[in-house]
Amino acid sequence: MSDYNFAYLDEQTKRMIRRAILKALAIPGYQVPFASREMPMPYGWGTGGVQLTAACLVPDDRLKVIDQGADDTTNAVSIRAFFQRTAGVAVTTATTQATVIQTRHRIPETPLTDGQILIYQVPIPEPLRFLEPRETETRRMHALEEYGLMHVKLYEDIARHGQIATSYAYPVKVEGRYVMDPSPIPKFDNPKLSDNPAIQLFGAGREQRIYALPPWTQVVSLDFDDHPFVASKADHACDLCGARDSYLDEVVTDDVGSRMFVCSDTDHCTTRRDAGHTGRLAEVAA
Amino acid sequence: MTALTGGFADPAIQSAQGFRVLMQAMARPGTIHDLALAVPPAPLGRAAGTVALLLADPTTPLHLAQGHDAIRDWLAFHAGCPLVGPDRAALALGRWDDLLPLDRFAIGLPDYPDRSATLIVALDRLEAQGARLTGPGIRDQVSLSLPDIAPFRANRALFPMGLDFILTCGDRIACLPRSTVVEDA
């Protein structure tokens, strides 16, 4: 352990964040303002998620941090090291072993379980922000359930592209009340938001907002009767583990147009390969 | 027992552990959890005292419906929260009968429904039977002994505004946020 207070933040700050978390859980999908602190990392690197994690951690937690599904990218590695140093908690890359998972823009492929906490890093928490820049107006629109503008945006997608072209940060409606930005997760992950046994917390540090989904909350992706929501992904199998049901990243492998598709969730891919599953390029990669 | 004893021995760790229990309780309305980290003076129960220390500080005006000098002194030393009337309170602490009528407390604003009071209620009985609860955080339904039905139904009708309840009895807590639908068993 270090000379920092447990989990870096001082007690009064954590109490303030904890009160906001309780209000967020009581009003699912509503963005609770909170007095976000400067953290020892830049905005955009997950300061909202880090503050939520700091307020939630207990010493016997096992923390997993992922960035676009990967445990081994810079953002994930540095946040994991930050909490190892300031909270002394155990860390893991296995989704099934983790008690708290901080994530940037993905929901793990492995289904979450009762008792786990999933903490999202959120850049822009307001789903209506690019339709209406004034905070006073978007607050009033949420209060009046005035979400017609969002449907107009989705309709304009259909008018221009023949389908709803929004592929990430796809807006959802929570328990038939608040329209919520699920953070920039691919829309492939949207169905996992609903009826999830884990607690889902969303933190936006720069924008100073916290919102939450309690377990077993109904979350519906916005759509139209004649253009229903489709949780799409690249139409390939993973080239390393052969999975056909996981979200894939496209990787360019040379300068003559070769490419491969790999699972975005590195733990899911590793677990499958360890179990003997192989994909098209598994031998080349090995 | 004085006002100076009975707080958290290890504030950072115990408030983290206590909050995790409280968060699980708020995320899963109606489920009963053990929470007894602080030792407040009688007649305040250990769970109610622990919740007060987890949430109250100099920035949260608290309405003390259970007006005992010993509790006032204990909160002043361990939490430092200003004591105020119900209309200005962010937190309220007391027995159910002393907290009534509930319309004295802030229910939030349409634009800011989070600016509402959280009521820490001391009950004589808290068991998993009685009223039927459904809503976010509840898979099918749960049962919880409630002191009354009508005030909670009226509170749900205000959603997304409304009060949030942390029900305590001795060492145990259960939460009833405004999102929960309450029906007769």
Automatic annotation (TrEMBL), chain A:
GO terms for molecular function: 4 iron, 4 sulfur cluster binding; alpha-D-ribose 1-methylphosphonate 5-phosphate C-P-lyase activity; metal ion binding. It is an enzyme of class 4 (lyase). It comes from the Bacteria. GO terms for biological process: organic phosphonate catabolic process. Keywords: 4Fe-4S, Iron, Iron-sulfur, Lyase, Metal-binding, S-adenosyl-L-methionine. It holds the Pfam family PhnJ. The keyword S-adenosyl-L-methionine applies. The keyword DNA damage does not apply. It catalyses: alpha-D-ribose 1-methylphosphonate 5-phosphate + AH2 + S-adenosyl-L-methionine = alpha-D-ribose 1,2-cyclic phosphate 5-phosphate + methane + 5'-deoxyadenosine + L-methionine + A + H(+). Its EC number is 4.7.1.1. Belongs to the PhnJ family. Catalyzes the breakage of the C-P bond in alpha-D-ribose 1-methylphosphonate 5-phosphate (PRPn) forming alpha-D-ribose. This is Alpha-D-ribose 1-methylphosphonate 5-phosphate C-P lyase.
UniProtKB/TrEMBL annotation, chain B:
SUPFAM superfamilies: PhnH-like. InterPro entries: PhnH-like_sp, Phosphonate_metab_PhnH. It comes from the Bacteria. Keywords: Lyase. One of its GO terms (molecular function) is lyase activity. GO terms for biological process: organic phosphonate metabolic process. The keyword Disulfide bond does not apply. The keyword Lipid metabolism does not apply. This is Phosphonate C-P lyase system protein PhnH. It comes from Paracoccus hibiscisoli. The gene is phnH.
